[in-house]
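In this supplementary section we document a worked example of the pipeline. Step one takes a protein sequence of length 211 as its only input; no multiple sequence alignment statistics are reported here. Step two produces a three-dimensional model, which step three serialises into structure tokens for compact storage. The input and output of this example are shown verbatim.
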Amino acid sequence: MAPRYDYLRDPEAIYRRSFEIVRQESNLAGLPDDIALVAQRLVHACGMPEIVADLRYSDDAARAAAGALRDGAPVLADCRMAADGVIAARLPADNPVICSLGEPGVPERARAAGTTRSAVAVEIWGERMAGAVIAIGNAPTALFRLLELLGEGAPRPAAIFGFPVGFVGAAESKAALVEAELGIPYMTLLGRRGGSALAAAAVNAAAGLRP
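The serialised model returned by step three reads:
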């Protein structure tokens, strides 16, 4: 006979218990209430309570993103995984979720410029960056290019959730976001850890905040 396992099956009970454990095991002391709610979502997304100590953020990051989403702002994602992780049903204003990575001409432009497709995809956002919520969960080059464009006077987003992951450029790009002092609300995770699940979780958390 095939084995039968004793495990929790009820979706709502699983959800409740998951966040009970997140709150028990995460050190959320000292975080603003809305930032703490986002942090819980991030821990839930990756299963690592220890990331809370390495979060960096502006105090208004969650409020700014939530307000922009309520006003209909788009979510601009650096990759399909981050875009697909945003829960459309949670978005308060049928907000568009945009990933430019697959648009025509991106590979050719990247080869011509000697850069990544992710960096070119950020350039394509153009005027759509104005007031947008940006979610970067994969490519350090996307975050670096975003910072360069903003330094050159590109339209300013409402908030940046910067969670690129990896061994080359991830830690450096996130440190650059913190150090840039752009005056744009942001949240990031220092070091190599990150990923699309975290970027999407941050957007989903902000979308669930109420005024």
